[in-house]
Amino acid sequence: MLRRVFVTGIGIICAPGQDVPSFLDSLLNSKTGIGCLQHLDITNNQRPFGEVKFSNVALAQMAGISEDIETYSRTTLLGIIAAQEAFNKLSNKNIRSGLISATTVGGMPLNEIHYQEQLQKNIHSNLIETYDCADSTERIADILKIKHYLATISTACSSSANAIMNGARMIRHNKLDRVIAGGTDALTRFTINGFNALEILDSTPCKPFDANRKGLTLGEGAAFLQLEAEDIADPEKILCEIKGYGNANDAFHTTASSPDGNGAFLAIKKALESANLQPDEISYINAHGTGTEVNDLSEGKAVMMAFGAKIPPLSSTKAFTGHTLAAAGAVEAVVSILAIKNNFIPANLNFSERIHELSFDPVIKCLKNQPVRHVMSNSFGFGGNNTSLIFSRFE
After folding, report:
1. Is 133 a catalytic residue?
2. Can you give the pLDDT at residue 125?
């Protein structure tokens, strides 16, 4: 018999909040974290970003790292902080625990600093192994003392949603009892220049689902969920249940979403079937909503196909955080869980005009005291890797 999977802890650090309470305050009061870069030096920077407002030294202090600070990438430091907030230490050593962490940039922040010196002077060779994406996973696991199972997932913008989905699957099928699942990504010159080359960066804060959207706003951050099986979860600590999930790959293009939304629709449909829910039972959709011309139209079409004429309240929260890439699915999972626990629907900031091909407007003002029972969180990545998660009130 498949086991139920509960969320018993959450942790986050991103542009609008250094922890869960400050992030919740930003969501409730529609306070964005988008602004100017302070800690990453790039040439001719005229764009806004969702940068975490702490230096690496400050992040190391927050993470409790006091030795060999220079060997910890910004990606790793962000991940440690969020994972520690989500994690509750267990005294029972027989509990099978795992860590599934997602990242796309991995150790790129350190690589960008030291690569040329390594080539020219053959120094900093001790940092080479930190460039691997799995290094952040291993260091987080060392801090949390998790040894049973480790995995690193990199499926672009759906990475941490897939980490959560796979963690839930392993618990459901009795492979593990507890999983810390999420993701972490730092801003780097590599990602900024890459998205700039694709010509999908907005020169102003992003405008998800707006007819005049011009692109995305990049951000950084980390978020993790503590998942536990029903037979070990403390009822007093249960935040919600992971009710369903679906993954589908439309394989349409290396970077662009399918224009008809078929891949996204299949992920949404699978998630509803997995949760044994009807479309009209979803209280809120936290959309992927990047603010790019293709993504928002594609996702909007998928939502209309799946939900018909009765579309639930929907918003993208990337105008709060920026697009945090591999961390985005976990960041927005935290948003979804906070919506359930606090009965509100966050605003879709910067919206003014409906996309004419779509039949709905996103929520433009934070809806407080709004009963929220089931939330769908969408994460759609490069290569058409699409994932939808459903979080439900614990009953």
Report:
1. no
2. 66
Q: Counting beta carbons within 10 angstroms of the beta carbon of residue 150, is it exposed (0 to 12), middle (13 to 18) or buried (19 or more)?
A: middle
Q: Would you state the pLDDT for residue 258?
A: 76
Among 14, 133, 240, 288, the one annotated catalytic: 288
Tell me whether residue 173 is one of the annotated catalytic residues: no
Q: How confident is the model at residue 384 (pLDDT cuts 50, 70, 90)?
A: confident
- pLDDT over 90 (residue 60): yes
Q: Which stretches of the chain are DSSP H helices?
A: 20-28, 56-63, 74-86, 108-121, 133-144, 159-172, 189-197, 262-275, 293-307, 318-321, 328-342
Question: What CATH code would you report for 5-237?
Answer: 3.40.47.10
Is it true that 5-237 and 244-392 share their CATH fold?
yes
Q: Is 288 a catalytic residue?
A: yes
Looking at the chain, the whole-number percentage of residues with pLDDT higher than 90 is: 83
Straight-line distance from the first to the last Cα atom of the chain, in angstroms, rounded to the nearest whole number: 19
Model pTM? 0.95
CA 33, CA 98: separation in Å to the nearest integer?
31
Give me the residue spans of the domains in the chain. Answer: 5-237, 244-392
Q: Lowest-pLDDT range, 164-168, 183-187, 250-254, 335-339?
A: 250-254
Q: Could you say which of 14, 133, 323, 374 is catalytic?
A: 323
Residue position matching structure tokens 């040329």: 116
CATH code, 244-392: 3.40.47.10
Single out the catalytic residue among 14, 114, 133, 157. 157
